[in-house]
Amino acid sequence: LQYMSEHLKDFKSTRDITAFMLEALSRAHHSIIATHSGEYWGCGTTTLLGGCLAKLPLGFIFLCTSIGDCKAFHYSPKYDKFVDITYGNRQNITDPTDCGGRLGPCKELAPDLRNVSVFGYPCEEGDFILMVSDGVHDNLDPESLGLEPEHINT
The pTM is what? Predict the structure, then answer.
């Protein structure tokens, strides 16, 4: 967050924002590693989802980077519609212990980058972006809860 805040003035395009978000992921990983001297087996790991809402000449776009299985959703009150912006970031939905990727020492000192991704979604004024941890998502997602569509009251 600090890195992104310090570089807001440098954002000129969606490509710039994406590059800064990926650099922020790298810095977060190195910060985790730096907290432990020598004994990396005891160093923690974490998933991360970071995003940025940018105003472009043609409107707004929400950009986010994800490593792991946190989720980002877009809600449009105008169309009363939810969209899973991070659709597909959870590769193994049957194994809740496999988040797909994580920062911290997973492979020696390297992070697990199996599902690191960048997502973008157009937004309008008044829209909502919801960013949730995998735990929140797992407790709200009917498929994760083993519910069939006919058992959901909408």
Answer: 0.83
